[in-house]
Amino acid sequence: MAKKPAAQLQLVAAAHTQRGAAGVTDDIVDAITTAIVERRLMPGTKLVEQQIADIFEVSRTVVRQALNQLSRDRLVTLEPARGAFVATPSIDEARQVFQVRRLVEAGMIRQLAAQITDKQVDQLRLHLRDERQAVVRSDVSGRTRLLADFHVVLARQLGNEVLAELIADLLSRSQLIALMYQSSHSAEHSQDEHVGIVDALAKRDARTAARLMEQHIEAVERNLRLDPRTPDLASVLRPKH
Question: What are the residue boundaries of the HTH gntR-type domain, all occurrences included (predicted)?
Answer without folding.
Answer: 22-89
